[in-house]
Write a structure and sequence with these properties.
By secondary structure, the protein is an alpha+beta fold. It has a domain of 154 residues: Ubiquitin-like (UB roll) (Roll). 38% of the residues lie in helices and 9% in strands. Strand 1 and strand 2 form a beta hairpin. The protein is elongated. Keywords: 2Fe-2S, Chlorosome, Electron transport, Iron, Iron-sulfur, Metal-binding, Photosynthesis, Transport. Could play a direct role in the oxidation or reduction of the quenching species formed in the chlorosome. Its main location: other.
Length: 244
Amino acid sequence: MNLIINDKTASSSVGQTIGKAARLNHAHVGYVCGGHGLCQACYITVQEGADCLAPLTDVEKAFLSPRQIAAGGRIACQATIAKEGTVKVLSRPEEVRRMVFSNPFQLIGYAADMGKDTAQQIVPGVQNLIGRIQRGEMGGKDALGDMIESIQGAAGLVVEAIQQGPMALPIPFKEQIADLISKLPLPQIQLPSISLPQLPSISFPQLPFSLPKLPFSLPFLPQQPQATASLEKVTITVQPPAKD
């Protein structure tokens, strides 16, 4: 099975939902409600291989507008891979990211369409939710456990990314943000010059009296004679002994 999420290949198998495959591959597809189709955080657009997926579920028919369905919209936690082939999808966060850095003005119409779709599907969505609650599909420990598992999975991804460093966080346009920050001119901060105050000069007061002179004089110390030595010239004459 060849599953491509946001232009990145993800391992998957037949019978698996796209939402489950996205979680296992750490792909940027949201999930909060535990795969019950309530939050629609995992909304995706199928760009290729729609025939490889199972038909729309009742949950998708209730929460997706006709416009979204016609555009290839699916809820990843509900869209099951039915047969082998190539399926290429685009998540909503990635779609928004591409708009931000290609044509931000598209976001105005995109947000308006999202609001219109949500308002249009409020009644069918609530009816579907009530029906599932009445059938016992949304109650009990299983549903709560699914939600807790999803939240724990999301928290685990964040913790893992933090351990790898700030830039490993699953932010949809972190590379572009980092690039923009690196190009921002840093302000030049000039520290003010600090001059220390001049210390005042301190003069000690003059004594009001003078020291008296000594009434006696020290005795004269005679100089000791210096010892001198001289070497006089000495002449030594050696005479040979007299002959008999």
